[in-house]
Predict the structure of 3-hydroxybenzoate 6-hydroxylase.
Amino acid sequence: MNKTETAIVVGGGIGGAAAALALAKVGIKVLLLEQAHEIGEIGAGIQLGPNAFSALDSLGVGEVVRQRAVFTDHISMMDAVDGKEVVRVETGPEFQARFGGPYAVIHRVDIHDAVWQAALKNPLVSYKTATRVVDLHTYENGVEVIDEQGNRYRADVLVGCDGGKSIVRAKTLNDSPRVTGHVVYRAVVDKDDMPEDLRINAPVLWGGPRCHLVHYPLRGGAQYNLVVTFHSRKPEEWGVTDGSKEEVLSYFEGIHPRPRQMLDKPTSWRRWATADREPAASWGTGRVTLLGDAAHPVAQYMAQGACMALEDAVTLGEAIKACDGDAVKAFELYQSVRIPRTARIVWSTREMGRIYHADGVERQVRNLLWKGKGQQDFYRGMEWLYGWKEENCLEPR
């Protein structure tokens, strides 16, 4: 039997840290290679559904993350033009009982640290920073990656967790990204600077014409995450740059004063020109596979990017167990269940972006979509997403 003993994980973000932990938990020695000079996270807040907490519990870090997260009372969508509520999904005890976990928001740094520290405590995990992978080779009995200094690293298998601009993906699939034309600005605002009427213990999305805003609390309510998105008027290139308040304000004319007041609060802005990719039929061949944004980069509209990476990691570990340590067979099993699920996320996310940014008659139709629906109706609609757990992760969902 081809029992896998060693693995290389490329990329040390949330997905890479989770992959290293999941592989080590099934007895595989992991070398993680990270191109940055230190392993950590940047950015601001992310949202975690019950499916993410199921994955975190499987990885053994659920309680640590719960201590750092803010549990929300509900999820709301507001109309950014007239300021009225369009839909509210309660995320209290009934929601948690239905899905076996909470809905929460957390700073990216806090969740990454929880997963990475757990990985570091496992003696099977080692890592190298300042190591940018530029090439890879696959052989009958192993893989080899080469960094930009010419150093070579060999292992039985390779998992590419190196983000949306993945080198591993480029060397295996060589497909092109799909630039969305949507620009995202993110900022963190201290509680004292957040308007009092918007200090709400929930992710609140304000959907406007070709734009939207989101805000929610972080770190016990001491800070608030603020995200604004708009359809750019000019051609965009995928990447991150510094932005300007003037640009943001120019896209939010005609927005209700209540959400618009947030745009005066941030002192600095980072500008993301976003992209995703068309779902692929395969994430690699034989001894190479992908995980997280390297496998299925997705826009932010369903807040599932990190959640899917965590699911990927748990599923990968469970597939290896199910295949008695044969990672080549396990990679096939892993991809057979993860590719359809994450493709559904990518396509559903695109549609949610359209719904959030509706204008004219389409906005009127959007505001009627959830009219008359009760909480159980919402929960039934979310079952496919939030009902994911370790025990069903190898079943199509």
Q: What stands out?
A: The first strand starts at residue 6 and ends at 10. The chain has a mean pLDDT of 94. The two ends are 30 Å apart (CA to CA).
